[in-house]
């Protein structure tokens, strides 16, 4: 039996300093890991020894953390912050899979991933999940209900076949079912012990390897027993194991008792209701038919149910203490509202800060400015002392003045041995006996100003002229609803409109923002707006759609580029497919450069493609040598943007483009889109990003224009007046597209009122 999660053990290599104390207690809910090293490697070749696998990982692995410290306190809320590709998702995966020594196997850890791999999807592996209802999927993911039912089915069928009176009677069926069940359970246990043997060292490592060796023998024996010929089995063994199968089946039925499952289902329904699912939607809606936002809510419901599994619910509150939360999000407003602490990942190290992101950025800026001033003042003082030393030596030698020469030597000794920081870490005046106690050299640390992180800079190519005026694209009286023509005719009541009489015109330079709740039809509206060609060019797996009523008009010379919200999953699928490799070398993995080369079909040189990828944050070997499957979500977004921008479009349609991008890249893209001369149609839940792109808001760190160009809310009115562009925010609700006169603030006010009503229920 092969466990897919085993790939993570092969590709994520973890080591750290291990405590000599036993902390295998599930109530141990804090982590304090020092000397943490995490390296991502390719899976070792089949048949490779453990020593060869480790040697290969050292030579080819990508080091994400080196001698770092990971500290998580019980019940605290952390935001893991870092640039794309620094290893945030890998660290979360290492924690969730308990790859870090010190995390007990008994501790329940729920992970909500950034992609749709866990819920739904387009490949065969997720076909069963797509067919399940929302409620069934949540219960299955949180409790492995299907696995229990499968074991019951296997034993029941074996016992029924063994006890049958007809020609289908097979006396050994129950025995074989029992032995298969034992074999499968031992395989799962083998995975856990193999992981422990990889991660532990010293005495406990030796003990773990002994346990692994013993279990490997048990697995081999179980395999041989399962495959044993019927003629070799005695009647006594047959009778005993058939009875054992019946007893085990009775135990499994107790575990699957209706009262217990009803309790879990009741809790799942409550969680789904809290996340906005109606009873009808939870029990009848298939996961495969959900929008991206609703799929993520389904995954969140499963994570919440798994985290609360086993706890008693009293007065609507969990009996156990609140769980520890580690959050990775690039939505600045969301992180500031949820997290109390920041875990900052940079240069393979981890640092901590208590507070929100704006406070941290302000503190860093103030600290850097303060250190610059201190260093400048100390450099001036040092230069003055060195000048004094040189003068005293010169005049002392000239006049044979030993006093001046001694003064010069004393000052030189101070520069050599006692020069450096004048204050300690707490801001007090430096004292040698207190701040550098013990045996040491007397030289203090120099004032080091931390280097400023190189800012991300994105340049969008200017679009070509259209040659003659007109709307770029427009919707006139567009209506749409899902369902086949036969379904629409046979319905006793008309199906609800997904879009109802939508009118929208987009002109050169316009900034159009579309907001709305999950499932409101935003992505459907976008797909109707961009047309079949743009949907196909984006690589989206969804089939094309046409308006049920109304017309869609597109400028005949328009170059339109469409970023679909599942673009990352699409490129990741391409990178994982061997058939998508370049034609020159079928064995070569697909990279960002080779994918883009295939797209342009000779219309741009390799130098032009490398320049474009470099401007988007995929420079050099990262673009040409790193396989797509090894890139982070944010790096895959950059690749997807490169596939759009090489065409020099006049209109960019972006559906949730910020989901995987880090703060710096979001800021750079926000700034670039705000001044780009083409038209932008944006669907996003990131209000900070939409305020900048659609409404022209400028933050302090980006630099503002003159006061007369600001209306007091950060909007850059001068740019709007100069370009004559329209800055419009629409809300899609109940199939209707409505212009918000007050912009995004109107939408936020409406949401606050809705939340207040829900809290009063």
Automatic annotation (TrEMBL):
Residue ranges for the region (Disordered) are 700-719
Q: Which sequence ranges form a coiled-coil region, renumbered to this chain?
A: none
Which residue range or ranges hold the ABC transporter domain?
Answer: 33-372, 480-727
The UniProt keywords, alphabetically, are: ATP-binding, Nucleotide-binding, Repeat
Q: Where is the composition biased (Acidic residues)?
A: 700-711
> What InterPro entries would the database entry show?
AAA+_ATPase, ABC_tran_Xtn, ABC_transporter-like_ATP-bd, ABCF, P-loop_NTPase
Nucleotide-binding among keywords: yes
Check the record and name the PANTHER family matching this protein: ATP-BINDING TRANSPORT PROTEIN-RELATED, ATPASE, PUTATIVE (AFU_ORTHOLOGUE AFUA_1G16440)-RELATED
Q: What is the name of the protein in this document? A: ABC transporter domain-containing protein
The species this protein belongs to is Sporothrix epigloea
């Amino acid at each position: 039996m092969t466990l897919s999660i085993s790939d993570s053990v092969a590709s994520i290599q973890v080591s750290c300093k291990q405590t000599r104390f036993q902390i295998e207690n599930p109530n141990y809910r804090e982590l304090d890991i020092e000397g943490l090293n995490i390296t991502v490697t390719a899976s070792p070749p089949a048949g490779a020894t453990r020593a060869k696998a480790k040697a290969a990982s050292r030579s080819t692995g990508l080091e994400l953390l080196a001698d770092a410290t990971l500290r998580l306190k019980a019940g605290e809320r952390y935001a893991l912050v870092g640039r794309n590709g620094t290893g945030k998702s890998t660290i979360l995966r290492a924690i969730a899979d308990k790859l870090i020594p010190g995390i007990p196997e008994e501790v329940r850890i729920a992970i909500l991933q950034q992609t749709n791999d866990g819920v739904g999807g387009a490949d065969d592996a997720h076909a069963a999940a797509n067919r399940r209802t929302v409620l069934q999927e949540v219960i299955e993911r949180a409790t492995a209900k299907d696995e229990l039912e499968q074991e019951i089915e296997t034993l029941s069928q074996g016992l029924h076949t063994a006890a049958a009176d007809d020609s289908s009677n097979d006396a050994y069926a129950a025995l074989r079912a029992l032995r298969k069940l034992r074999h499968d359970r031992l395989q799962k246990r083998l995975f856990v012990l193999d992981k422990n043997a990889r991660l532990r060292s010293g005495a406990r490592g030796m003990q773990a390897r002994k346990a692994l060796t013993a279990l490997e023998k048990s697995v081999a024996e179980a395999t041989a027993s399962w495959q044993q010929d019927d003629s070799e089995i005695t009647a006594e063994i047959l009778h005993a194991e058939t009875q054992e199968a019946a007893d085990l089946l009775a135990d499994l039925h107790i575990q699957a008792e209706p009262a217990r499952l009803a309790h879990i289902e009741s809790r799942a329904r409550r969680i789904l209701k809290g996340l906005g699912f109606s009873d009808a939607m939870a029990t009848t809606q298939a996961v495969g038919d959900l929008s991206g936002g609703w799929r993520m809510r389904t995954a969140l419901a499963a994570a919440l149910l798994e985290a609360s599994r086993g706890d008693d619910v009293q007065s609507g509150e969990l009996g156990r203490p609140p769980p520890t939360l580690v959050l990775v999000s690039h939505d600045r407003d969301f992180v500031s509202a949820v997290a109390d602490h920041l875990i900052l990942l940079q240069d393979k190290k981890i640092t901590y800060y208590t507070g929100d992101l704006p406070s941290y950025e302000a503190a860093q800026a103030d600290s850097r400015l303060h250190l610059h001033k201190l260093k400048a003042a100390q450099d001036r003082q040092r230069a003055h002392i060195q000048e004094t030393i040189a003068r005293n030596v010169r005049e002392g030698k000239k006049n044979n003045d030993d006093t001046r020469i001694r003064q010069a030597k004393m000052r030189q000794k101070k520069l050599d041995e006692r020069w450096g920081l004048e204050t300690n870490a707490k801001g007090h005046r430096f004292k040698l006996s207190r701040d550098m106690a013990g045996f040491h050299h007397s030289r203090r640390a120099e004032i080091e100003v931390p280097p400023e992180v190189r800012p991300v800079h994105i340049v969008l190519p200017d679009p070509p002229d259209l040659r003659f005026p007109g709307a770029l694209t427009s919707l006139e009286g567009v209506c749409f609803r899902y369902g086949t023509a036969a379904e629409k005719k046979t319905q006793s009541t008309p199906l609800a409109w997904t879009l109802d009489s939508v009118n929208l015109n987009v002109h050169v330079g316009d900034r159009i923002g579309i907001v709305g709740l999950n499932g409101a039809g935003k992505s459907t509206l976008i797909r109707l707006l961009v047309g079949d060609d743009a949907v196909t060019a984006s690589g989206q797996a969804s089939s094309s759609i046409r308006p049920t009523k109304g017309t869609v008009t597109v400028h005949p010379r328009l170059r339109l580029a469409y970023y679909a919200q599942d673009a990352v999953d699409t490129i990741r699928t391409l990178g994982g497919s061997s058939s998508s490799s370049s034609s020159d070398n079928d064995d070569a993995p697909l990279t960002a450069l080779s994918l883009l080369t295939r797209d342009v079909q000779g219309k741009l040189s390799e130098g032009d493609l490398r320049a474009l990828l470099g401007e988007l944050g995929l420079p050099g070997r990262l673009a040409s040598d790193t396989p797509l499957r090894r890139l982070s979500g944010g790096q895959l977004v950059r690749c997807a943007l490169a596939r759009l921008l090489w065409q020099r479009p006049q209109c960019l349609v972006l559906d949730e483009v910020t989901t995987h991008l880090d703060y710096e890249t979001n800021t750079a893209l926000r700034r670039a889109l705000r001044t780009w001369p083409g038209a932008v149609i944006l669907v996003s839940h990131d209000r900070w990003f939409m305020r900048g792109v659609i409404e022209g808001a400028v933050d302090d760190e980006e630099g503002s224009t003159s006061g007369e160009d600001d209306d007091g809310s950060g909007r850059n009115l001068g740019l709007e007046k100069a370009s004559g562009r329209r800055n419009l925010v629409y809300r899609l609700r109940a199939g209707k597209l409505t212009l918000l006169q007050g912009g995004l603030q109107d939408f936020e006010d409406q949401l606050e009122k809705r939340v207040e009503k829900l809290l009063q229920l």
